[in-house]
Amino acid sequence: MPLSTRLSIADALTLGNATCGFLAVYFTTTGVLIPHITGSEVSGMARHSAATAVMLMLLASVFDLFDGLVARKLRSSAMGAELDNLSDLVSFGLAPAYFVVVWGMVTDGAHQLMSAVAAIVVLLAVVLRLARFSCVTLRDGIFQGMPSPFGALTVVSIVLLELPFFPTLLAIIGVAWLMVSRVEYPKPRGPLAVAMLAWIAASMGMLAAWAFDSPGGQLLLQTGCALQVVLGAVIPLFATARRVNTFRDNRREARAAQLP
Description:
Low-confidence stretches: none
Strand content: under 5%
Helix content: over 70%
Oligomer: single chain
């Protein structure tokens, strides 16, 4: 094969990301939506399948983290950047948006049309974010807007919190706005990448406890989802405060330089 079309190790991890996203949609359909439509839902089936779908999104974020690390250490093919964007669109755009649509169909008191609109907003936010990421050059070490893996997991966490319908809808749209905003987020490197992996592992443990109805499993899940949402809300505040402080420091330096 030509060098431009040979897959590297990093590309294989990227394809693992896309596979996890597709499987998340598969389990959401076969274990949550179809049993609800046919009325054949067995006790625990929806919970197990929903937990599996979210775990697959978490696993996709691990693949997304490591393909970048491997690409920097080894190499990526000429298709690497395109593969990464397409895989992210499946795992962090389509999969969470579909999760929101199904939530609107199976949850009592939800409005299917409005949940579908919220899902479209999430999907389009990820599309716009990925397109902008390919076109805009930023300083090293930051993302502009909430990263799509973080945004996808925050959207799913909001759904799993089982809040009233309209607050859930507003929170989902708020996350979509953060993904296309100009708020700066740090890239997961070094200690931050280790912390991210630890949080993903802990989240999988909470989901497993909830799926198997372990004692305290519901409380663990609610705590984990709440922490994810709080992180999504707090990081922009810190980023904004940092930018304001930097602006003030620059003004002070400029004034000091003008003094005789």
